[in-house]
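note to self: the first set is below, dont mix up w the second
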Amino acid sequence: MKVVIAIDSLKGSLSSIEAGTAIKNGIERVYGDKADVIVRPLADGGEGTVEALAEGMNGELKRVTVKGPMGKPTESVYAVLPERKTAVIEMASAAGIVLVPDKEKNPLKASTYGVGETIKNAVKNGMRSFIIGIGGSATNDCGIGMLTALGWRFLDENGNELEGNGENLVKIKEIDDSAVIAELKECNFKIACDVNNPLCGDNGCSNVYGPQKGATEAIISYLDEGCKNFAEVTYKKYGIDNIDFPGAGAAGGLGYAFSVYLNSELKSGIDIVLEETELESYIEGADYVITGEGRIDFQTAMGKGPMGVARLGKKHGAVVIGFAGCITEDADECNAQGMDAFFPIIPRAMTLEEAVDKENSKKNMAHTAEEVFRLIKAVGK
């Protein structure tokens, strides 16, 4: 019997690999070495992707001090996969909204400069392929902060260099790329982007995401004009019109910067992770595929990581089983989307603190997997 496990992290409790290993332990209590049980990492391009791919793909974590979104030093953590010369980066580690207290949120001043510093550090460490998740930003600078850190210069009407932030987008009149780091020509970028917003307009980054970043109506209008101006100047320089490109408005226009300036591919985060981990090649020939996350609910069925795994499992004729910390009443949509059955791992009433305790979670996960596979064995499958 072949079982492939690819379960997302249970945030605040178990990493993807820890959860998968606990499930493996439970299965092996039933089948011993008669089952071929494979554990692979899973993430959806958002929070936890760096740790999941580092832990599950023989990578290591790198730490670099960069400018945070409001200019204060912060530690950006990214993963390197040396055999692939690949870096895995979450932009939120350097420019995330969680790094900014509510009273300090200001999309006019916030910058993605630290994202560029992180990329530059990875390039200097020999990385040439990049997987970058761009969710959770505090910024609305169209990525000019990041690009400035990589060597681009954005100039006003008098030829003065502008700081890379949202406030200066409307002032850009010229672009100088003579000092861009040469190694970028050797790099390729896959951007985990799960929104389809254009850069500007009613559905653009400023109008849709600006308010949660501290923008008033007046600031939203100013930023939207800045985005339009930046796109126009960019078109004059490079002849690329990606203002309506799906995902251009992601992360305050960072999706636009990646698509135009770094010729990047914007894709669903789970699709990128499944490709990079080569999960399908492991699932071929599997009898059972195990997936899940902290909570299985209706949103799980809307393209989150476990459903990507479920689709691959069903493609290859496997039985797909889900495990989660909790299950909601609307989770049955996951059954319709390819998850044959799913189970909560909490065995009794307990406090949240008890439930998320790492050792309790490992024990509960292993126990649930054991009981499910005891049933499978009993019915002869």
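second set (the one i keep forgetting abt)
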Amino acid sequence: MEDLAALRDELIGAVEAAGDLPALDQARVAALGRKGRITDLMKTLGTLDAEARRRAGQELNALKDAVAAAVEQRQVVLAGRDLDRRLAAERVDLTLPVRPERPGRIHPISQTIDEMVAIFAEMGFAVAEGPDVEDDWHNFEALNFPPGHPAREMQDTFYLPDRADGARMVLRTHTSPVQIRTMVSQKPPIRIVAPGRTYRSDYDMTHTPMFHQIEGLVVDETTHMGHLKGCLVEFARAFFQVDDLPLRFRPSFFPFTEPSAEVDIGCSRAGGEIKIGNHGDWLEILGCGMVHPNVLEACGIDSTRYQGFAFGMGIERPAMLKYGIPDLRTFFESDLRWLKHYGFVPLDIPNVAFGLTS
């Protein structure tokens, strides 16, 4: 039988000399393939006596394992090099302008946020932002969710490790903590909207673990429920571009507002298709109410002098309704074909005076 030590050095040397993946595969086939060197030697075992066959079989199996291990190690190295070369070749300079022949698209979520902000900006609202990772006080307790409050069970919360000072940390379940941060840091009058990402442990055709909300807050000495209603009526009609769009306010419960209401807009469900407008049916789009005195007091605002209203809605659902997008999950699947179909031209900037969309 052939000198196995010399054969081992030869085969492993060929593997280590392979400069790319095709060359490596050729070395593998030459050693381990059906007509490979080691395979041919395996076929000669039948000509040996029992003791010699046992000893030669062990040696050939050890050789086979050594060559296979060398192939696997070399494959990792060459695959890494290939990836590095491909990444370098496909590198994109994000500071360069978009190529005219390959125009980019604005994601429908970004476009919808801009549309909503444009409408509320016309009403005098400023935009406020806050962190995605919140402590329990801003996300729950200051919003009238004391520890053990049953309303906490309504939130499927992503809890994070506690801070060094013992504060319980969460991925915010709504953008309401931005309202709290604003009321703590600013004196009334306050008029802000807070768009941003929120997180809840849920995933199906109508829910995702990460989604977007926009909330509004007004705090002053004279605001009342009539102002809230007028604000939301004007917003819904401007956003959906339906001048006679009816809104219905139904009594509801939220820990942070009192009284509270859920808001429906007029629609039609004929033929299994939802059409927004004055068609005799209803569809819920948001929740709202007067800011609870406990929330004002938690933020250091005198509830005997000031009052206010708040509202909140998801951003994906209005976008789906307005632009006919059937499945919520497609917003987050990074499909360029989907974005090309539903996306917006970057210069198509929402403006109430000249139209939210072209």
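remember for set 2: The mean pLDDT is 88.
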